[in-house]
Amino acid sequence: MSDIPLVPEAIRAYPRLSEKEGLLSWVATVDHKLLGIMYCASALFFFVVGGLEALAMRTQLGTARNTFLSPEAYNQIFTMHGTTMVFLVVVPLMLGFGVYLLPLMIGARDMAFPRLNAMGFWILIFGGILLYYSFVAGGGPNSGWFAHMPLPERAYNSGPGMDYWALGLLAVGIGTTAAGINFIVTTLTMRAPGMKLTQVPMFVWTTFINGFLIVGAIPALNAALVMLLIDRQLNAHFFTPQSGGSSVLYQHIFWTFGHPEVYIMVLPAFGMISEVLPVFSRKPLFGYTAVAFSTLAIAFLSYTTYAHHMFAVGLGHVFELMFAASSELIAIPTGIKIFNWIFTMWGGKLRFTTSMLYAIGFILLFTIGGISGVTFAIVPTDWQTTDSYYVVAHMHYVLFGGTLFAVLSGVFYWFPKASGRMIPERLGKLHFWLTFIGFNMTFFIQHFLGLMGMPRRVFTYDDNTNWSLFNLISTVGTFILGLSVILFIYIIIYTLLKGEKAGDNPWDAWTLEWATTSPPPIENFQQLPPIRSRRPLWDLAHPEDPDWARSHKRRQPATPERSNDRP
Amino acid sequence: MSMQSSVLGEQYAAVPEKEGVDRVRLGMICFIASETIFFGMLITSYVYFRLSNDATPNARTSLDVGRTAIFTAVLLSSSLTNWLADRSLQRQNQRGLVVWLSATVVLGAIFLVGQAWEYAQLLGDQVTVSRNLFGSTFFTLTGFHGLHVFVGLVALTTVAVMAGRGWFRGPRSGAIESISLYWHFVDVVWIVIFTLIYIVQ
After folding, report:
1. How close A348 gets to chain B, by Cα (Å)?
2. pLDDT by residue (tens digit) across A423-446?
3. Rounded Cα–Cα distance for residues A128 and A412 (Å)
4. Which residue of A has its CA nearest to B8?
5. Which of A95, A97, A312, B103 is within CB 3.0–4.6 Å of A179 for a Cys-Cys bond?
């Protein structure tokens, strides 16, 4: 009787927080929920830092022959913008959501290795601090986020920046690997009794597969980084062509990591979308098996496509053809996913919450980014557009329009669970439109700048026809994005202080994380509902028509907005 | 409503507490997988530069294959003693566990002494990390392997001391089983390295 409170009250989020340990409880905690929140909070912090770097760059590029930033400063800032956004924002966000949600979604008490979880987080933060300490130590890293050789070698780069870059990323890499191992083991060994691997929410699937990608890819980066460090500190010759080393070998090793990394940064985002769309369409995910297997296919293919980042090297005809073909192949599983999401919405009773808007925005923008991505798989097109602003537009459509929109969809969806409070929809929608307009204004026009020949990573440009105008439009868009970030921080603070109480299951969702209180107690669940299908809470609320009793092959009609027979 | 709730309440099941040696082993297997990629990249670099660059000094001119073969045999026999330690644990033979773990530590340490000897001789011959690509790749690859042996020795010493104080009563222990996995992995990596650097040349 008392198992299901009729009017849930928000309980204190962090039982230990205000007790005598105080702040120490955040440092000493091994609770996956606190760690997940800390991952996301530190990602937000670094997002603001990386965003300020972007604002500085766009200010410099606002007009032709601007002198706001020196070339040296510009190099350091674009390097740190890329490094920060990839390693300290997007990856930690994927890890943070995984760490927070994985145990809740599979009905577990915590991750498989709670202390490893905490260790991974703190090593990652330490890496971030090392990276930024370089500015104090005498100059930041300045060779781009992928640091193609031999520019980062000591002969060309005598400052300490690249040493801190390599050391910082090593630390970040070790922390990320720890989380990846935890994802795999948690999914395999911690599922609630009765929950089969074919019944876990899609986000669990994508995070699980992400674990394999992390374990398989990050060590390659670590190997490249230690070789770079040994080159710089002990005068070894790995990547110095003048003494027999090979700068192309570095590219092979780096992109062996680098392309799976792209999917490390997007697979969990696919998972978030696959959670949000069904709930706000009031239908189960269309083609669960197809989505899961296409994720697997993407993960597998990602290891076979890395050299499409290297077409400009001139690898030879056969080599290029092979990688062009395998890169184009990846469009197939990705396309399958997009069709599945659209058919999830098809015929559903759509609820256009902020979270849903972001999910739909994701599908639109990610499709644009995906299509421009296919053009890079075609070798001659790649030769024409590589290292131009077309690449910049493409990767921001995938990483910002793709991953970050999905993350925002996830934030607006799960924030009530994590904080116990509802984000006001009015503010949320304002934020969506600001971000959507600012994003497209900033990056859509960069496609054209790239096709017009503007190279990336240049600190200034000549006043060619329309270049100043297009760049100015892009810069204005960036400032709109800046506003949207300020609004986002305001929304978070406002909601934490004054948001309405959320209740256990404000969206009437079906997965296990909504079966506990908001925020969940330290032990996550006192009791679990029986798990006999992919939607245990649906079965609980509809004993007359549970999922497990019907064939998954039959068409499943959309359900009413709010079912009245819910307990 | 309340009736329905109470009916549903009975449907709930208590959250079970799981314990698992296998969970720890699985974690170690994942870690070993990541280490395999790491060593794979270092080995790839060694092979790539060995094939593309034949300058001296190199493995043929500088390395003492016979001596290293002896130390290799020592390291491989430490895998055997480690397996005997595992078996003692399964048979709940605490004394055997301590003895065989300690033997493993001693054999691993002898291997490291051999590596130090080899390094000292190479450095005396002016073969250093910065001498040429052979130096760079050789010291990086074997150095990282040596580091892994050292980490393994620290872990083995820790569990040996704990075993001496009666922490492991068997028949299973996640700590000992996963450290054994790691130790065997380090040995396998050495077999690959020894084959590629010393035998194939």
Report:
1. 28
2. 999 999 999 999 999 999 999 999
3. 26
4. A540
5. A95
